[in-house]
Amino acid sequence: MAMRGWPLIRILPHKTNFRFVRYARSFAILSAVLTVAAIVGCFYPGLNLGIDFRGGASMEVSKPAGQVVELDQLRGAVNGLGLGDVQVQGIARRDTNANDGSTAIVRFQVPEGANQTEVVQRVEASITEAVGDVTYSGVSVVGSKVSGELLLNGVLALITAVVLMFVYIAVRFPWQFGIGAVAGLLHDVALTFGLIVLLRLEFSLNLVAALLTVIGYSMNDTVVVFDRLRENLRKYKVMPLRDVIDLSINETLSRTIITGLTTVMVLVVLAVFGGEALRGFSITLAFGVIIGTFSSIYVGAPLMLLTGVDRSSGGKADATPVKLGMASRP
Fold first, then answer.
1. What is the edge-to-edge ordering of all strands in the sheet holding 135-142?
2. Does residue 104 sit in helix, strand or coil?
3. % of the chain with per-residue pLDDT over 90
4. Helix 276-295 vs helix 205-235: angle between axes, to the nearest 10 degrees?
5. CA distance 207 to 229
C-alpha cells in the first residue's frame, strides 16, 4: 500500500544513483582512525562502569516540587562518610518528568564486607542532616561479587551475539561478504563504545542491551544491502564491481533512510522524555543506528573492492545498466 500521508516519504526520490564508492577510501581512513581511537578510549580513560558492574548503591533524593536540592550539599554529605567515589546528578521528577532541581540521584560505593542496609541508612541519615527532610526512592544495592558476575555475563552476551552474527553470515553469504559484514559489525560496536567513553555515559546493563540491539540492527541493515548486491552480481556479470556496489546501495537507499530515520526519531523522543534512566540507552542506540547505516554503505560493501567477488556461478549474464531516476549521474 502506498504511503501518501507523510511528506518526507513523498519527497524522497524513488531511484537514486549516488556514487558512494567514489568516497569509500576517504571514509575508510576516517573510520579506521575513529575505530582505533575508540578502542584506545575503552582502556584509557576507560569505561565509566555503573553500579551494576562496579558494585555499590544508588538512590533518588527528592523534595516537593518547587524546592531545590543542593547538589553540593548532597555530595558533601556522602563524601563525609568516606565511601569512595560518589556521584551526584540532578534528574527529572518521576511524576512530572521535569527537571526543576528538586530531584537528584546519588550513587556511592559500599565497602566490601560492610552491611549494605546499614551503609544505606548512614547515607540517608547524613543527607537528611545536611539538606533537611527529603524523600528517598529507587534505592538499589549491588554487591561487588554480583557486579563482577554481571560484567562477565554482559561481555559474554556481546561476544556471543557477535559470534552468532558471524555464523549467520558464513552460512548465508560467500566469504567475501563475510569479511565486509565482520568489518562493519566490529566498526559499529567499537564506535558505539567510543561514544560511551566520550560522553562518559554510565556503562550499565541498559547499555549492554543497547549494544546488543545495535549489533542486530547493524547486521540487518548490512544483509539488506548484501542481498541486493548478490542479486545484482548475478544479473550484471560484466558491469564493473564498483558500479554494481553503487547500484545495490542506491536501490536499497530509500528503505535504509526511512527505517533508520523513523527509528532515530523514536529514540530521540525517548531520550528527551524517557527520563534519566533511559537517556543513556536511547542515546547509545540512536548513535548505533546511525553508525550502522553508515557502515552498511561505506564499510561492508565497498570492502569487497579489495577482496573481489566470484561472479562465475548462477544466473545469466546481463551487462546492460538500468536507467535510474532524477538523482542519476550524468
1. 86-90, 103-108, 56-62, 135-142
2. strand
3. 11
4. 20
5. 33
Using CA atoms, how far apart are residues 155 and 211, in angstroms rounded to an integer? 11
pLDDT tier, 316 (very low <50, low <70, confident <90, very high otherwise): very low
The SS3 of residue 75 is: helix
Report the first-to-last Cα separation within the chain, whole angstroms.
32
Q: Which amino acid is residue 147, in one-letter code? A: S
- The grid coordinates of residue 247 equal 547500484
Q: Helix, strand, or coil here: 257? A: helix
Higher pLDDT, 289 or 92: 289
The per-residue DSSP string of 150-202 comes to HHHHHHHHHHHHHHHHHHHHHHHS-HHHHHHHHHHHHHHHHHHHHHHHHTT-E
What is the spatial distance between Cα 29 and Cα 40, in angstroms, rounded to a whole number?
Answer: 17
264 is written with which cell numbers? 532515530
Residues in CB range of 132: below 8 A, 6 or more apart: none
User: Cα angle vertex 76, ends 70, 79, to 5°?
Assistant: 140
Name the CA dihedral angle for 148, 152, 158, 163, rounded to a multiple of 10 degrees: 180
**Bridging pattern class, strands 135-142 and 86-90:** unpaired
- Output the pLDDT for position 325: 42
Condensed to tens digits (0 to 9), the pLDDT of residues 54-93 reads 777 888 888 888 888 888 888 888 888 877 667 787 887 7
Q: Average pLDDT of the chain?
A: 80
User: Is residue 37 exposed (0-12), middle (13-18) or buried (19+ Cβ within 10 Å)?
Assistant: middle
Find residue 105's DSSP bridge partners.
Answer: 60, 89
